[in-house]
Write a structure and sequence with these properties.
This is DUF4424 domain-containing protein. The protein has 326 residues and is an alpha+beta fold. It folds into 2 domains: 225 residues, Immunoglobulin-like (Sandwich), CATH 2.60.40; 66 residues, no CATH class. Helix content is 28%, strand content 31%. The strands form 4 sheets. The protein has an 8-stranded mixed sheet with strand order 6-5-10-3-2-13-16-15, with no helix packed on it. Strands 1, 11, 12, 14 and 17 form a 5-stranded mixed sheet that branches. A hairpin with a 4-residue loop joins strand 15 and strand 16. It is globular and about 75 Å long.
């Protein structure tokens, strides 16, 4: 979103650099429900392919209804599919993950937001539509006056006399746009309160379970690799504790990390303990039995890229020298 770009510009204007801050947490997550049920997640298999800068996550959940027939909403918490995201809803969200139930692929119409968040969702979508209209109108105005743009963003006026008139039009348009979208900050506050704090799932879909029925649900998505402060390290995180709300224990859970572009000698942390590490195939795996997942079971891999680490160390030396001089 354009708002994200504006946020980054403000950060830079305040005197910070990207080495002073880290992107928002990038955590892969599983499925859960806020409704009471007797549906057990009997098996959870997560296979992750980690590449240079991104990961592809494939999850398979085997579910068993041990109660009466029931229909419920299944969903997952908010996930960040890009760096520097400030949250909320975007029109492209649903295209960033694939979901199947018993091999039936869900469409964008099947995936929705919780009913309690529908109004908030529409507000986000309306803001984005206004952003597009604003940009298109500006481009149309510049085009009608045959105004070109340099690489640095400055404008080239074919007729210098047009400058004042165009500036007046653009200023009026910008003021109108600002007034129309001024409430966007309150939308993010509502999103944080209702979604990031776990009151409601981010997106949900309806599933019907007959008595004693078993279903297989798969979720696949691609997301960036996590970055530590100043690019000191990279990481991958999968939150097994997302599945703690299901009925009874998870009988079998397995997590597999395929390290395609991870230098093995640069791995600094692997959590939790009890993993197997096949260095020849570059695979780390965990197996759990009768798991009641907590944060201590969450998967975490931390490693560094030499070029980024050296850049971070140079930056820290300069920063320390500057502090000492003061």
């Amino acid at each position: 979103m354009r708002i994200t770009i504006i946020l980054i510009i403000l950060i830079l204007a305040s005197g910070f650099t990207f080495l002073d801050i880290a992107p928002n947490p990038i955590d892969a997550k599983g499925i859960y429900t806020k409704e009471e049920c007797k549906i057990q997640m009997q098996s959870e298999v997560v296979e992750v392919d980690i590449y240079d800068g991104y990961s592809i996550v494939n999850c398979k959940f085997s579910m068993h209804n041990k109660g009466e027939e029931t229909s419920l909403e299944i969903g997952f918490p908010e996930m960040n599919f890009q760096y520097w995201s400030i949250g909320g809803y975007e029109e492209t969200d649903k295209s960033k993950f694939k979901i199947t139930v018993d091999n039936n692929k869900l469409t964008s119409n099947d995936i929705k937001v919780p009913e309690e968040l529908e109004e908030l969702y529409q507000e986000f979508i309306n803001i984005q539509k206004m952003e597009r209209e604003y940009i298109n109108l500006k481009d149309s105005i510049y085009s009608s006056y045959n105004i070109k743009e340099r690489k640095d963003g400055s404008k080239i006026y074919k007729n210098p006399e047009d400058f004042k008139q165009v500036t007046t039009i653009i200023d009026s348009l910008s003021t109108l746009h600002f007034n129309n979208t001024a409430h966007s900050s309150s939308l993010y506050a509502q999103f944080d309160e209702k979604v990031r704090n776990g009151v409601f799932p981010w997106y949900v879909w309806d599933v019907n379970f007959k008595e004693n029925e078993r279903k297989e649900i798969t979720v696949s998505y691609r997301m960036p690799i996590g970055l530590g402060y100043g690019g000191k390290y990279r990481y991958f995180s999968y939150l097994l504790n997302t599945g703690k709300g299901w009925y009874e224990e998870i009988e079998n859970a397995k997590v597999i990390l395929n390290l395609h572009d991870v230098p093995l000698e640069n791995i600094e942390k692997i959590e939790p303990k009890g993993y197997e590490f096949d260095e020849s195939d570059k695979v780390i795996s965990w197996e759990f039995k009768n798991l009641e997942p907590t944060e201590e079971d969450d998967i975490y891999l931390e490693f560094f890229i030499k070029k980024e680490r050296k850049q971070f160390e140079r930056y820290m030396k300069k920063k320390r020298r500057k502090i000492n001089r003061n």
